[in-house]
Amino acid sequence: xxxxxxxxxxxxxxxxxxxxxxxxxxxxxxxxxxxxxxxxxxxxxxxxxxxxxxxxxxxxxxxxxxxxxxxxxxxxxxxxxxxxxxxxxxxxxxxxxxxx
Length: 100
Hints:
It is a single chain. This protein has one domain (25-96): Cytochrome Bc1 Complex, Chain D, domain 2, CATH 1.10.760.10. It is mostly helical. The longest helix has 29 residues, at 3-31. The protein has helices at residues 3-31, 34-37, 55-66, 75-79, 84-96. α1 (3-31) crosses α5 (84-96) and α3 runs antiparallel to α5. The model has no long low-confidence stretch (mean pLDDT 86). It starts with a helix and ends with a helix. The chain is globular.
């Protein structure tokens, strides 16, 4: 294998590892939602399920909680702990989950 092929292979491996780490980070953030919204957004009856919901609507709700535009007992405090980009990633994660 030539030197440039080794460099290319190492770069691809590094990119794959970074992508996996990013996916795992989103799962960590989403796990914080499980107490109320269930694992992977599959909530128990009486709680709001997040799996398969529209990501843009979910993001807007989260941003409204964060900025105090939507009243809440808990969500406004939780949403403040994330950046807008993190909330965007969390919304995309739950939107990608299959509804039950």
